[in-house]
Structure formats: structure tokens, C-alpha cells
Amino acid sequence: MTGDLVLAIDQGTSSTKCLLVDAEGVVVATGSAPVPIRYPRPGWVEQDAGEILDSVLVAAAQCLADVPREWVRAVGFSTQRESALVWDKRTGEPAGPVLGWQDQRAQPICDALREKGQASRVREISGLPLDPMFSAAKLRWLLDRAPDAVVGTIDSWLLYALTGSHQIESGNASRTQLLDVRAGAWSPELLDLFGIPSTALPSLTPSAGELGRIGERGGELAGLPITAVLGDSHAALYAHGDRAAAGAPRGPASGGALGGPEEGGALGGPVHGGVKVTYGTGSSVMRLGAVANDGVCMTVAWNDELAAEGNIRSSGSTVAWLADLLGSTPEQIGRLAASASSDGVCLVPGFGGLAAPWWDDTAVGLISGLTLGTKPAQLARAAVESIAHQVADVVDVMGPADALLADGGATGNDVLMQIQADLTGVPVLRARTANLSALGAAFLAGGFTPPISYDEFRPQPGDSAAQRSAWRAAVARARTPQHGS
After folding, report:
1. pLDDT for res 253
2. Cα(303)–Cα(315) distance, rounded to whole angstroms?
3. Is pLDDT above 60 for 250?
4. Is the four-CA dihedral 308, 289, 408, 232 of positive or negative sign?
5. What is the pTM of this model?
6. 411-415, 434-438, 449-453: lowest mean pLDDT where?
7. If we measure between CA atoms, which residue out of 432, 430, 422 comes closest to residue 385?
8. Which of 72, 149, 191, 463 is the most exposed, having the fewest neighbouring CB atoms within 10 Å of its CB?
């Protein structure tokens, strides 16, 4: 066992999880620690950089508590992405809060650039729509209050805190809206537009390699090399096995009767043309290769491999909101949804606008189709269907897919998986293994590619065309006149 294990650290929005993984993909130890989130004003979402670092150290110590140190050979990170922070490079101390990826306080900065006619230019260079979800506007807001600080995302903060090196991984860098995504370099034009000094930026680093050795600040991690860093959505895609640049094998899913779940085989790689969907608080829909469509983003998957991605702001959070509204729980909402039809009710979760493929920050939340016969069960079903409809919207603009490769907490809901297959008309392959973001980081850090096995949900005949038409009408009503159609 000496030197055979890789420690994967998955630093997420609400918690940090650690997995100790062997070359077969078997998890031999785990650890976790919560990360507080604060909402000081409407639309503001903050975290504390010190608390994020502490959560990493606590979760890692739990994971390594009963494992001889010589068994561990490397560390891989999977991190939340667009969250932004600044710190004093001399002292290493944070110079402000971490602005979470959902934080909207930098909207006026984006609006000012849009009014100057710069939105299309920002998109052309960065591959991303002008939106406060991405890091650049948040970094400008932070630097206005700490002008001499250096800047970074969560991965660059952790690399700096643990190794002393100010660097950022290529995929995370592509989510800052400061990278020329085709050139793979910081864009002087974007830096000028957002007012970010080049001297404040981290250096760009590939996703895998010798990325630094952890110092004494790392506690139980001290002395271990970091050999991989990925954004969380990118890491999940890597874990599914879609590693075209590395020549990973691909194979078809095994068959089954119509309307799953059916047990799929262990795949060395996904079905050709597969699209990865991670279901979480929001959802990430991603496939390798650039897509020439303004409905989705162009991003870096890892190293210099480009990918297309559509980001959905509200998925699991829609169910949580409805549960709170009804005095229920997300689990009870799931059970209600399984027992009912939506009966024409549509719920458009435009709580903070709509992201991909609409990118309409003025859209509002809307429930349509209500009647005197509408009960909580219909609302529950509409909430679950809204997740699948939004994913289908993104898949529609990405182009044909042979299968959806599903991971994340909500995939445990069989009803959602079947609805997703029905609305997209393609099989949904649900990973039987949890924590794919952490596993993707472990696989890249360790240089091994164990297969992932799936359950398959096949599309069933039904009225999906009518449901999609009703959904599109509801989305049009949720959007403002200048955007809606």
C-alpha cells in the first residue's frame, strides 16, 4: 500500500470533502467539514477565506487520521470556481470577504460595461457572457476596497496558502472572464476593461503536474505534493471518463428495457457524444469541444482542452425553496413529485434571473397554469420538472447528444432522471458512484483511469413535445419584454 493512495480534496460551496482513493477508484477513507455562508444583504453571498482553508485542514486531518503517511503519494484539488477573493501578498492575510459564485453585488459593473457596448467583446475574448457570476467584476469590486491586494479564485487561494506560490489552474482561470480562452493567456484588453492590474494576477498553471509541495501551514498535509487542480464541474467530467485528449477508451452503455433504471456496465469512457450534467444547488451541463452558440460558454476543461458549458442557477435550490415555502423538506417534495402530474403548472425559477441559455439577469420567478385544483403535489412536480427543462434547454443549444452522464445529489431521484430522459429524448446514464468531483481530481492527480458504472434511464413515449412547448411559453412570460419573445 506504500505510496499507492491519492488524497482528493473537494472544496465546495457549503463544505469541504476529502477522499483517500486507490488506483482502482476505491475510497478507503473520508473526511468532511462545513463552510459557513453569509448573506449580509439581498443578492450578496459571502464566505471567509480563513474558514475555507480551515475546513480543508480539518477534513484532510479526519481523512488521514488512521492512515500511515507513507501510503499517500499526492494531493488533488477540486474547487468551487467563480468565487473571488483578494489578499495581502506580504502577510498572506485576506483583504476582504470571499464573494461567492452566486453573489450579485457586481451587477452595476457589468451593466456599465454593457452600456458602453463592451458585452460582445467580453464574450468574444473570454468565451463567457458578461455576468456578475464570473470572477472579474467581483474582483473589481474587491479591489476598489483593497487596491494594493492580489487577486485569486478559491484554487489560487488554497495553492498560495498551502505552498506560498501565487498561481491559478487553467480551467479555473477560464472562469474569471479575464482569460483569452483561445490563446490560454491573460487578456490585456479584458484586464483594462475590468480595471484589474496585471501585477495582481496569479500565474497560469496547467491542471496536472508538479504544482507545489505543501508547507508547514498545511498541518497533516505538510510535505505532500499537489499534482492536480480542477474546477469542480470539470473534475466531474474528467471522472466520467471523457478524456479525449488523453486517448481514453470509450464504450457503449449496456442495454435494458425501455424506461429505467436499468443497470449499465462499467464504462472506460462515456458514450461518444455524451454530455455531462452535474445536479447540485445549480447545475452544470458540459461537453468537450467548443460550441459556436451564445447560449453556452466556452471554457477550458483542463490543461488546454476546450469545452462548452451551460450554467443553471437554480436546480436543487428550487426544491429547497419550495420545501421551505410549504413547511416541508426536499425529500418530501421529491416524494410528492413522484406521486402526481404537474397538470399544466410550470415553475420558472428565475430567482436571480436566468442563466444558460438565456443569460437574462432581469428574468423573474414565475408559476403559471394554476387552477383551483392545484395542490402542493402539482407544485412539487413542477419544481422537479423545472430542473429537467432547464437542462433540456441547454442540451438543445449544445447540439445532438447520445447520452447524458449524470452525477450530483439530485440524481438519487429516479423520477427526475426519468423526466430528464423523456424531455431530452436521449438516455440518462446515472453514475452509481458518488463524489465524482473529488474522484476526478484523484484520478488526474494519480494518473489512473478506473471505470465508472451507471444506471440507465431510457426515454419513454409521452407528451414531452407539449410539455416543452408549455415550458418555453412560461419562460417567455418570466423574461422582460426586451428579452422575451
Report:
1. 32
2. 29
3. no
4. negative
5. 0.88
6. 449-453
7. 422
8. 463
Q: Which residues lie closer than 8 Å to 222 by C-beta, 6 or more apart?
A: 214, 215, 216
Q: Are 77 and 155 in contact (CB under 8 A)?
A: yes
pLDDT of residue 101: 87
Please report which helix (H) or strand (E) contains residue 52, including its range.
Answer: helix 49-64
Q: What percent of the chain has pLDDT over 90?
A: 78
- Residue 357: cis peptide before it, omega within 30 degrees of 0: yes
Give the distance from CA 450 to its chain's centroid. 22
Q: What is the β-pairing status of strands 72-79 and 226-231?
A: parallel
Domains of the chain: 5-224 (3.30.420.40), 246-485 (3.30.420.40)
Q: Where does residue 268 rank: exposed (0-12), middle (13-18), buried (19+ CB within 10 A)?
A: middle
Distance of alpha carbon 112 from alpha carbon 193, whole angstroms: 10
Looking at the chain, the number of H-run helices and the number of E-run strands are 14, 23
Please tell me whether residue 345 adopts helix, strand or coil conformation: coil
Contacts 24+ apart (CB under 8 A), 109-113: 109/137, 109/140, 109/141, 109/194, 110/137, 113/193, 113/194
Both ends of the chain: CA-CA distance in Å?
61
Chain centroid to CA 189: how far? 27
What is the C-alpha to C-alpha distance for residues 123 and 189, in angstroms, rounded to an integer? Answer: 12
Location of C-alpha cell 425529500: 331
Residue with cell 463544505: 15
User: CA–CA separation, 441 vs 29, rounded Å?
Assistant: 16
Per-residue buried b or exposed e for 298-336, using 16+ beta carbons within 10 Å of the residue's own CB: bbbbbbebbbbbbbbbbbbbbbbbbbeeeebebeebbeb
d(CA 360, CA 349): 12
| Predicted local confidence at residue 50, as pLDDT | 97
All three cell numbers of 209: 503536474
Residues paired with residue 20 on neighbouring β-strands, in sequence order: 7, 29
Check if the beta carbon of residue 229 is closer than 8 Å to that of residue 172: yes
Q: What are the backbone dihedrals phi and psi of residue 291, each rounded to the nearest 5 degrees, phi first?
A: -120, 125
